[in-house]
Amino acid sequence: MKNGLIAFAAALSLTSGANASRVCSTxxxxxxxxxxxxxxxxxxxxxxxxxVAVSIxxxxxxxxxxxECVAEWPESWEGRYEDGNIIWSDCIWAGNGATYDTAVAFxxxxxxxxxxxxxxxxxxxxxxxxxxxxxxxxLGMGCTTTEESGTSCALNETSPAxxxxxxxxxxxxxxxxxxxxxxxxxxxxxxxxxxxxxxPGSTASPSSDTGPSFTLRNMANADVFDCSPSTNQNDTFxxxxxxxxxxxxxxxxxxxxxxxxxxLTITQxxxxxxxxxxxxxxxxxxxxxxxxxxxxxxxxxxPLWIGxxxx
Length: 311
Known about the structure:
By secondary structure, this protein is mainly β. About 5% of the residues lie in helices and about 50% in strands. It has helices at about 1-10, 175-180, and strands at about 30-40, 50-60, 65-75, 85-95, 105-110, 115-120, 130-140, 140-145, 150-155, 160-170, 185-195, 215-220, 225-235, 235-245, 250-260, 265-270, 280-285, 290-295, 295-300, 305. The protein has an eight-stranded antiparallel β-barrel with strand order 1-2-3-4-5-6-7-10.
């Protein structure tokens, strides 16, 4: 079941389409949940991984449009990383309708059955501007547990609604540490690229893995970074992010990618030489979509929004 869900989402990521613009002066946006499922760790696989899959539909006017959201993490984490940060994952545009969003993401606090949704989009009423909207919903889930298959849960309510509240991004260029410390920090990950060698049907670990490289755009300000791996130890890539800004900067970014789990951690730090210095940390499950040429796989991803703690 889990492999099927992940393969389904990866296939959907290949769907082509076009973005339109939203009116960013609109204060709220409506969504509804079409379906939701949680599958706990499979006792026969001994990997401890749980999978959650949710289908969400934007508003009432975007007929034929929906997003498939899939994440996988150790069941014991309950949707939060070891440091307590909630784990964000992408939602892939599907169906035959239009989308007004650049990136749609979700996170599930399984302990509290709370799903968080975010989406970024261009503003039709403010050329060159973008916006971020977020919202949350407690899911009504019915669950069964057996020794043979573990825990399985499904949505037991009909099309529950989610309202997201929007705000324009972002602070101006050169914004101060103090301003950033008072602003919700998040990023949009773009141009994800990773290559490795793995024979068809092999269960071995990939070889000649380049690790991920990508562009990171801070949604709270004008910061843009180009990120690439620098070390790989024990299946974990550590990398640095080079700012595109000219001259000196008070901020720097770095990342860690745990290959076996697909977990990416982003850290952006502000060194202001005073009490306003701080770190912002976001965690995401990155699936990517991989194409194969012989034993070589090349993996890419649509834009992925990564938040810090829940907004």
